Amino acid sequence: QSPPDDLLLQHLNPEQRAAVTLPAEHALILAGAGSGKTRVLTTRIAWLLQTGQVTPGGVLAVTFTNKAAKEMMTRLSSMLPVNVRGMWIGTFHGLCNRFLRAHFKLANLPQSFQILDTQDQLSSIKRLYKQFGIDDERFPPKQMQWFIGGCKEDGLRPNMVEVRDEETRKKVEIYQLYEDQCQREGVVDFGELMLRSYEVLRDNDPIREHYQRRFRHILIDEFQDTNKLQYAWIKMLAGTGAHSTADDASFNPTGCVLAVGDDDQSIYAFRGARVGNMADFVREFKVKHQIKLEENFRSGSNILDSANELISYNTKRLGKNLRTAQGPGEPVRVFEATSDFAEAQWMVEEMRQLVREGMERKEVAVLYRSNAQSRVIETALFNAGIPYKVYGGLRFFERAEIKNALAYLRLLENPRDDTSFLRAVNFPPRGIGLRSLEQLQDVARASGCSLSDAVSGLGGKAGANIGAFLAGIDVLREQTSGMKLSEIVERVLEHSGLIQHYKADREGADRVENLEELVNAAESFVSLENFGRDAAALPVDEQGHALTQSPASQGLDLSQPVLDEPVPDLETGETQSPLAAFLSHAALEAGDNQAQAGQDAIQLMTVHSSKGLEFDCVFITGIEEGLFPHENSMSDRDGLEEERRLMYVAITRARKRLYLSHSQTRMLHGQTRYNPKSRFFDELPEAALKWITPKHQGFRADGATYSGANSQGYTGARGQFDINYSKFAAAPAPIQKAAPAHGLRAGMKVFHAKFGEGTVQTLEGTGDDARAQINFPRHGVKWLALSVAKLTPVP
Ligand code: ATP
Ligand code: MG
């Protein structure tokens, strides 16, 4: 091995090394959580490049999130002196978007097509219902959204769906209407990105053959969660699909596929994922290399035994082993709370302690089964002044004010985008009434055109008002042409009146802040396609090949150019505008909240979105019957097994410390529930667990009392159960009795901007950790972090 190879391979165990250095043939790595699958995949790319077996342009890698794609790009560019820009690394949706932008004409889309996220899609469907008077009780829009998504995942256009009954016939009809509407507006939903790019490949031989020749190595992470269409797409690119020209003797399929996955972590069956793709892959690609990785590098054996024992209750498994070379590590801590509120308060206490002992906040994750659970936790963190960041849920780009701003930006790119048109036309209010818009929609329907095109056919005051709005957009488009992305965003925020609107709103301060954050997001935005373009000039030739003198690059065959977007039979050179790239990014962003990236904050997310990630400390909350396993999945065995896999994913995110908690009562969807603790507790090895709930907690079901009265009881409990926190501490923090610097005393009256006047009841901690329990007559008892909360003494 040449020295650079050793450098790449030295951080691998022998099984991993064998996987990384496999010959260029199809392979499947089937291995449990934390066994280094993702590391192997990344290193394999680096090794292939390093040894000159492939050029950056010949690599296609599919990751589960955009965040993972970025990490991979960063890792690769730090490992190797190559320009990684030519590589196609991203999520399925991201890659399909890139593909469709390059081939928009063949795809029958406007170049500036916009992407509908889930919310947009639903409002688009609802708009359709209004227009055609569709009964939304018989065909609930959400259900229709699932139906459409399901069809697309199976590769089915409306005319391909098998119609067996009247209900399906009607649904297919709505599906068709929806398709027509999207096409007219130049928008695509997530499912469409995938299906459309699949169809372009299927129906255009030169394009398909081009990409088949180009992508020598196709690597897919989290393969267990691919759906039918995604698998078909991979097959097509690898050159063995049913529509490939495999029967043409001159065609030589060159794509070499490495699939990496874990059947026990398949958690998207409800959305069409097919674990069976693994078996199909092995059969259809005649996979010779099946590699197992059996060493877990992430966690100690208490955590790992818990995961292994739990998952052993599933019957449908391919069977794998997982061991760890690390010792037992800390026990898995189990906590029973009296209420969801108390559960959150307890977590806050633990987090404080962890942070005091030196743990970084971003290394602490709180996982929950359903998004609705996050609110109570967020409130507790907020009141405690602990920075946190929520993944998923209402993501940055899904907030109303951000969507309003994006609607304007999208209209700059594509005036035919009716969803954006309707969002922006009367917001901020400009006196354009519902009736006018209905009239406009009638005109548009009658002439089969977009709303903006229909304006000229609308007379009177309504026509004039809407016309003025559109003229404003046109002016803005002209003014901003050639501007830097962040300047465009800034200009649009001003010109649209959004900033003024929210500034005038008493509750609008947060929204203004978010809008300003959008400018920052635009400022720091780098699309994956442009990754590294501006980075310190790596020596590359014009085709993006590395020009370093490594043994690898000397072996490269530079006579075969691999351009970034070489498109046969199409005029090339048309690249996406930065604004268009930014808008795609906003729609595709899967939970990575760019606005707060880098901040040291506690990480909150659903178990689903934690897949592939790892943290030093993980809290899994609300482990109760009905919640986890979820009530919708408890009744059938498949559903229950998927819940158990979810629990397996959750447990295996933890590196050092794992907390499991459940609560006797919980407010959910406006009701108090009394859920028994989850059956999953019975499936964990008792020896790995440590129950940290005090026998007599001394606090009542209304959590306020907990935070009010029991800091004592709690500390007592900690002493009693002897939890070893010192593991994380560089030096254990002694409990200081220094004089408080904040000058507050119990009994003092204070004023808080949000909660008004209150009385200090208890004070705790010093310095940054100082906090006060304050009784606000209007808002109840709160614990406030004094380093954050702004309190003024009231004389
Ligand atoms: P998941 O199933 O959760 O996606 P995975 O199999 O992809 O997990 P990785 O995320 O690649 O596992 O690796 C888990 C952790 O172990 C990472 O922190 C990684 O850096 C580390 N790791 C992987 N291989 C090794 C190794 N040979 N030596 C030391 N650490 C390793
Ligand atoms: Mg992984």
Instruction: Estimate what percentage of residues fall within beta strands.
Output: 5-15%
CATH class category label of the largest domain: Alpha Beta
| Helix/strand class | alpha/beta
Instruction: Count structural domains.
Output: 5
Task: Provide the CATH topology of the largest domain.
Answer: Rossmann fold
Oligomer: single chain
Specify the helix fraction band: 40-55%
**Biggest sheet features:** 8 strands, mixed
Describe this protein's structure.
This protein is of the alpha/beta class and 795 residues long. It folds into five domains: 3-104 and 193-293, Rossmann fold, CATH 3.40.50; 114-185, Arc Repressor Mutant, subunit A (Orthogonal Bundle); 304-393 and 594-728, Rossmann fold (3-Layer(aba) Sandwich), CATH 3.40.50; 397-524, PCRA, domain 4; 749-793. Helices cover 41% and strands 14% of the residues. Strands 11, 12, 13, 14, 15, 16, 17 and 18 form an eight-stranded mixed sheet that branches. Strands 3-2-6-7-1-8 form a six-stranded parallel sheet, with helices on both faces. Strand 9, helix 13 (301-311) and strand 10 form a beta-alpha-beta unit. Helix 1 runs antiparallel to helix 3 (37-50), helix 9 packs parallel to helix 11 and helix 14 packs parallel to helix 27. The longest helix has 21 residues, at 460-480. The protein is globular, with a radius of gyration of 28 Å.
What keyword list fits this structure?
alpha/beta; binds adenosine-5'-triphosphate; Rossmann fold; binds magnesium ion; 795 residues; 14% strand; Arc Repressor Mutant, subunit A
